[in-house]
Protein backbone atom coordinates (compact mmCIF):
# COMPACT_ATOMS: atom_id res chain seq x y z
CA UNK A 1 0.00 0.00 0.00
CA UNK A 2 0.95 3.58 -0.41
CA UNK A 3 1.17 5.61 2.76
CA UNK A 4 1.33 9.06 4.21
CA UNK A 5 4.65 10.81 4.83
CA UNK A 6 4.78 13.12 7.79
CA UNK A 7 6.42 13.06 11.17
CA UNK A 8 7.22 9.40 10.37
CA UNK A 9 8.19 8.02 6.98
CA UNK A 10 5.39 5.42 6.96
CA UNK A 11 2.26 6.90 8.52
CA UNK A 12 -1.46 7.26 7.95
CA UNK A 13 -3.26 7.14 5.70
CA UNK A 14 -2.72 3.70 4.19
CA UNK A 15 -3.41 4.01 0.47
CA UNK A 16 -4.36 0.59 -0.96
CA UNK A 17 -3.51 -0.11 -4.58
CA UNK A 18 -6.28 -2.57 -5.31
CA UNK A 19 -9.94 -2.33 -6.24
CA UNK A 20 -12.65 -2.79 -3.66
CA UNK A 21 -10.67 -1.40 -0.74
CA UNK A 22 -12.56 0.41 2.01
CA UNK A 23 -10.10 3.27 2.58
CA UNK A 24 -11.82 6.63 2.78
CA UNK A 25 -10.06 9.87 3.69
CA UNK A 26 -9.68 13.44 2.50
CA UNK A 27 -6.30 14.79 1.47
CA UNK A 28 -5.60 18.46 2.15
CA UNK A 29 -3.08 20.96 0.80
CA UNK A 30 0.36 20.10 2.15
CA UNK A 31 -0.31 16.39 2.69
CA UNK A 32 2.48 14.15 1.35
CA UNK A 33 1.87 10.53 0.44
CA UNK A 34 3.08 7.72 -1.75
CA UNK A 35 1.40 5.55 -4.33
CA UNK A 36 2.93 2.11 -4.79
CA UNK A 37 1.40 0.16 -7.69
CA UNK A 38 2.46 -3.44 -8.29
CA UNK A 39 2.73 -5.61 -11.38
CA UNK A 40 2.52 -9.35 -10.72
CA UNK A 41 2.96 -12.20 -13.19
CA UNK A 42 0.94 -14.42 -10.87
CA UNK A 43 -0.76 -13.98 -7.54
CA UNK A 44 -0.96 -10.64 -5.75
CA UNK A 45 -0.91 -12.44 -2.40
CA UNK A 46 2.33 -11.74 -0.57
CA UNK A 47 4.51 -12.92 2.28
CA UNK A 48 7.64 -11.55 3.94
CA UNK A 49 11.14 -12.93 4.22
CA UNK A 50 12.62 -13.48 7.70
CA UNK A 51 14.09 -9.94 7.55
CA UNK A 52 10.48 -8.72 8.12
CA UNK A 53 10.89 -6.19 5.28
CA UNK A 54 11.34 -7.95 1.94
CA UNK A 55 7.96 -8.76 0.43
CA UNK A 56 7.54 -11.48 -2.19
CA UNK A 57 4.51 -13.08 -3.80
CA UNK A 58 3.42 -16.37 -2.25
CA UNK A 59 3.68 -18.12 -5.63
CA UNK A 60 7.25 -16.82 -6.14
CA UNK A 61 6.56 -15.44 -9.62
CA UNK A 62 8.24 -12.18 -10.69
CA UNK A 63 6.71 -8.96 -9.46
CA UNK A 64 7.66 -5.31 -9.42
CA UNK A 65 6.54 -2.51 -7.15
CA UNK A 66 7.06 1.15 -7.88
CA UNK A 67 6.80 4.09 -5.54
CA UNK A 68 6.10 7.74 -6.25
CA UNK A 69 5.94 10.50 -3.66
CA UNK A 70 3.16 13.03 -4.15
CA UNK A 71 2.13 16.28 -2.47
CA UNK A 72 -1.25 17.98 -2.49
CA UNK A 73 -0.93 21.59 -3.70
CA UNK A 74 -3.42 24.42 -4.20
CA UNK A 75 -3.57 23.38 -7.87
CA UNK A 76 -3.85 19.61 -7.45
CA UNK A 77 -1.29 16.85 -7.00
CA UNK A 78 2.43 17.22 -7.75
CA UNK A 79 4.54 14.11 -8.36
CA UNK A 80 7.80 14.83 -6.49
CA UNK A 81 9.57 11.79 -7.93
CA UNK A 82 8.64 12.23 -11.61
CA UNK A 83 11.37 11.98 -14.23
CA UNK A 84 12.65 15.32 -15.50
CA UNK A 85 13.51 16.15 -19.11
CA UNK A 86 17.16 16.16 -17.94
CA UNK A 87 16.95 12.70 -16.29
CA UNK A 88 19.28 10.02 -17.71
CA UNK A 89 17.68 7.65 -20.20
CA UNK A 90 16.04 4.48 -18.99
CA UNK A 91 17.73 1.23 -20.08
CA UNK A 92 15.15 0.55 -22.78
CA UNK A 93 15.69 4.02 -24.26
CA UNK A 94 19.36 3.29 -25.05
CA UNK A 95 20.00 1.56 -28.41
CA UNK A 96 21.66 -1.84 -27.89
CA UNK A 97 24.64 -0.92 -30.08
CA UNK A 98 25.52 2.21 -28.10
CA UNK A 99 27.22 2.39 -24.70
CA UNK A 100 25.19 3.32 -21.68
CA UNK A 101 25.91 6.85 -20.46
CA UNK A 102 28.47 7.08 -17.67
CA UNK A 103 27.68 8.64 -14.34
CA UNK A 104 26.42 7.82 -10.88
CA UNK A 105 22.74 7.84 -11.85
CA UNK A 106 23.03 5.30 -14.68
CA UNK A 107 23.08 1.54 -14.71
CA UNK A 108 25.84 -0.85 -15.70
CA UNK A 109 25.90 -2.87 -18.91
CA UNK A 110 24.04 -5.59 -17.00
CA UNK A 111 20.97 -3.34 -16.98
CA UNK A 112 20.32 -4.35 -20.60
CA UNK A 113 19.14 -7.78 -19.46
CA UNK A 114 15.53 -8.07 -20.52
CA UNK A 115 13.02 -9.86 -18.27
CA UNK A 116 12.78 -12.73 -20.78
CA UNK A 117 16.55 -13.24 -20.43
CA UNK A 118 16.49 -13.68 -16.66
CA UNK A 119 16.43 -17.03 -14.87
CA UNK A 120 13.92 -17.83 -12.16
CA UNK A 121 15.05 -18.29 -8.59
CA UNK A 122 13.17 -20.38 -6.06
CA UNK A 123 12.54 -18.74 -2.70
CA UNK A 124 11.80 -20.82 0.38
Automatic annotation (TrEMBL):
GO CC terms, sorted: cytosol
Residue ranges, compositional bias (Basic and acidic residues): 109-124
Positions of the UniProt region annotated as Disordered: 92-124
InterPro entries in the cross-refs: Creatinase/aminopeptidase-like, Pept_M24
Family annotation (Pfam families): Peptidase_M24 (PF00557)
N-terminal signal peptide: none
GO molecular function annotations of the record: metalloaminopeptidase activity
Transmembrane segments: none
Domain Peptidase M24: 1-74
This protein's name: Peptidase M24 domain-containing protein
Organism: Prymnesium polylepis
Amino acid sequence: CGHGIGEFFHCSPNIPHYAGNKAKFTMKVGHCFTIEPMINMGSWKDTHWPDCWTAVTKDGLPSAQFEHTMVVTENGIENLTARLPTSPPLWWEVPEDSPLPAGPATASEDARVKPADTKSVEID
